Amino acid sequence: MDEATVPSADLARAVEARLAASHDDIVERLKSFVAIPSVSTDPAYRDDVARAAGFVAERLRSIGLADAAVRPTEGHPVVTASWRGAPGKPTVLVYGHYDVQPPDPLDKWISSPFEASIRDGRLYARGASDDKGPMLIPIEVAAAFLAETGRLPVNLVFLFEGEEEVSSAHLEPFVAANREALKADFALSADGAQWRADLPSVTVGSRGICALEVTVTGAAKDLHSGRHGGAVANPIQVLARLLAGLHDDRGAVAVPGFYDDAEPVTEAELAAIAAIPFDERAYLDSIGAPEGAGESGYTLLQRNWVRPTLEFNGIVGGYTGAGKKTVIPSQASAKITCRLVPGQDPRRIPQLVAEDLRRRAPRGVTVDVRVEHGGAASYAIPADHPGLVLSEDVLESVLGRRPVRVRMGATIPIGEVFRRVLGIDTVFFSFATVDEDYHAPNEFFRLSSLESGLKAWTRYLARLGERP
Amino acid sequence: MDEATVPSADLARAVEARLAASHDDIVERLKSFVAIPSVSTDPAYRDDVARAAGFVAERLRSIGLADAAVRPTEGHPVVTASWRGAPGKPTVLVYGHYDVQPPDPLDKWISSPFEASIRDGRLYARGASDDKGPMLIPIEVAAAFLAETGRLPVNLVFLFEGEEEVSSAHLEPFVAANREALKADFALSADGAQWRADLPSVTVGSRGICALEVTVTGAAKDLHSGRHGGAVANPIQVLARLLAGLHDDRGAVAVPGFYDDAEPVTEAELAAIAAIPFDERAYLDSIGAPEGAGESGYTLLQRNWVRPTLEFNGIVGGYTGAGKKTVIPSQASAKITCRLVPGQDPRRIPQLVAEDLRRRAPRGVTVDVRVEHGGAASYAIPADHPGLVLSEDVLESVLGRRPVRVRMGATIPIGEVFRRVLGIDTVFFSFATVDEDYHAPNEFFRLSSLESGLKAWTRYLARLGERP
């Protein structure tokens, strides 16, 4: 019997068995992968990011994808590989990212962020959940198919970027310049995350993002706060006032024009969100928050999924060490990101915020606003997309329960980029879970999710291979 | 001729000549002194602070003060020494401090902060101007008198503390416990600083100080700003709003009760300030500030000298490294100090600020305010104090111009402590200059000020010795 005619369930079973037998090897590879501190936001880690790209390309070559390559961009490199040996079958663009968030605050990690530690069925390391564990899954699944049958059930193009944590700034030009090579029927993303550990879900939309940084400068140097206090402006005081003015008393963003282009949320969307089982208290307990907060007039999930936000990600100025230092700092600065909803332009919004900050700058200081390149618009997949429906079927078969459709407060820029540049939609098929503390100390990835993910990707590709 | 009958001018000339001949040795001793990083605010430097105390005591012993000793307190030690061989002559309590401010931001120092570098007649090092250079002067002058004549013109008690930069928290109990040993007619402070490099001045009053730190805590851990943004409070947003509310639109402190006990500034005081030659633009240029700012309705000098302030000395929260990190931090905090005027209680004021912050704390966060111990009240010397008038006469003889009387925006807690606990006033006789970047990178001390200071202290003690 030719491999191509093996029923997909039998094929999947054989590949799943092979993957189960390789479990320890796969975990070891994940450990090696997370040991590379590929922090994309900090130039100090540039070589490590490159090293992680090399690790991915080498693994893709070793499983039999001869064209695997580290492809330079103006930022961190992209890794690509392809297998197109199934003419007439669908072609899927597999997406993931090998870069990670910074590990700080380091003192809050129980084990070293770049040395995997397995405790209670969880692999702890920076990047384990976002996105090294999840992106390793389709590679390992492809490896198992190739080892088992010498071929894949569908055509695959792998695209792994190294700038997801910095808004995928150079992904779009790369995709645009490689349209033909990346040609596919749809994208299947290993990044995205399950909404809850106890409730299977598929993500059908994500918010966009834009980022800026504001710096207030007073005197040219730090001043003694007694000698000079009262004489000149205090940049922290000015910054606090500027930031406080970005929200109104109801918690809404006060920047003129901020909401102008945001598409209104439909009644149907609001009803769908209301229908999702959600224990607000349990959620708040899970993150240790005393209560919910934010824009009034919306539920917690509505605020998080379908309302735009303006968040402060960092602030610093003056003396921040132990004890006190009686100084008026020369500068104080804050990092800001906005999460965007459909209609909001990631290039226009930060300009509106910047204009508002500059307009309100008082005398005695200079206010510099630096808008970051590489924002991303919001994205939503059509409700009847066949790749989406297949993902729901497969998740139900693996997890025993039909997944709910959820939105995501976070941003995956690729959805919007792939649609605009390649004309294809993106199905999010990630096995990270939202409680895994990515972007925080003690990030972890459940080994049970690794197993579910390997099964699910196997069945997904096998069943997709049945289609013409 | 007995030494005691040598005319003071001749005696001073001989001692000045001896000091001039020792110039290089004195500079070397200052270099050794500033090489000890006696940063009192940071526990990491505890041993260095103790080492600096030992250095001072050893020097005092070596010049012939056998009772020189490092005296423990509940904080950093005090160094004392005395010479009481001139019965019937005045007794002066000489004050200075051997602790220094933290050196950061380290990257802004041109030469290493704890390795003296002499450039253009200035000795650059942390503590060179505040207060190691100035406090070395009376020691060197006493050394020269003792070497020249075997005695001093007046009785001296030396008191050098190690906590001036942390509000002299343990000085008052030490002074109270050593009232008899410290008994003197008045105090002469080597700390205090000349107001301007080009205009001799004597300081007749200083503002008080109190300190507190506010910490806003939201969730128990840092959160992904996409995943959770909009759902829960952002501690930086809350902190900015709390801090912004501490001043009103006119730049005045908005804390209820803040001004209630502040004694009104008299017309005479305002007129005296107006009579002082002051080039506001030159001052602003000297610190690189675009313009003055602060409480409206007052001139720059009035705001700085006789109006209380609430200053932010440091703020930190979230990600502050290079690039961006999409995080909602668990915490954000700010350091605050207030400068106080006569009437304001350094214990009551921070409680008022703390109450205001706590009262305005919104839902979804906890607001912790820690009030620092060891504040200090404002101080002013009586206008006709003989020690003050002598300081003016001596400065005129050394610098060729009658000094103006100025106030100080900064705090020297000893003025108020010595008056309250010992019943004596304090004459500020420092040769630091306000532009010497203490509390900032590249602190320096003018070698010309070292020479002027050595002459002035010599003449001051010689002339005071003429008095019964």
In short:
The first copy, chain A, has 468 residues and is α+β, with helices and mostly antiparallel strands. Helix content of chain A is 34%, strand content 20%.
Describe this protein's structure.
Two copies of one chain form a homodimer. Chain A has 468 residues and is an alpha+beta fold. Chain A has two domains: 292 residues, Zn peptidases (Aminopeptidase, 3-Layer(aba) Sandwich); 135 residues, 2-Layer Sandwich (Alpha-Beta Plaits). Chain A is built from 13 helices and 18 strands. Chain A has a six-stranded mixed sheet with strand order 1-2-6-3-7-17, sandwiched between helices. In chain A, helix 1 packs antiparallel against helix 13, helix 2 crosses helix 4 and helix 11 packs across helix 13. Chain A starts with 7 loop residues before the first helix and ends with a helix. At the A-B interface, strand 9, strand 10, helix 6, helix 8 and helix 9 of A face strand 9, strand 10, helix 6, helix 8 and helix 9 of B. Strand 11 of chain A pairs antiparallel with strand 11 of chain B.
CATH-defined architecture of the largest domain in chain A: 3-Layer(aba) Sandwich
First-to-last CA distance of chain A: 19 Å
User: What is the 3D shape of chain A?
Assistant: globular
Let me know the average pLDDT of chain A: 94
Q: CATH class of the largest domain in chain A, please?
A: Alpha Beta
Number of strands of chain A: 18
Tally of individual domains of chain A: 2
Largest two-chain interface: A-B, 103 and 102 residues
- What is the makeup of the main sheet of chain A? 6 strands, mixed
The helix-and-strand class of chain A reads alpha+beta
Strand order of the largest sheet of chain A: 1-2-6-3-7-17
| Cα Rg of chain A | 24 Å
Oligomer: homodimer
Helical stretch tally of chain A: 13
Find the CATH superfamily of the largest domain in chain A: Zn peptidases
Domain Peptidase M20 dimerisation (chains A, B): 204-364
Organism (chains A, B): Alsobacter ponti
Pfam family, one (chains A, B): Peptidase_M20
InterPro entries (chains A, B): Bact_exopeptidase_dim_dom, Cyt/Met_Dipeptidase, Peptidase_M20, Peptidase_M20_dimer
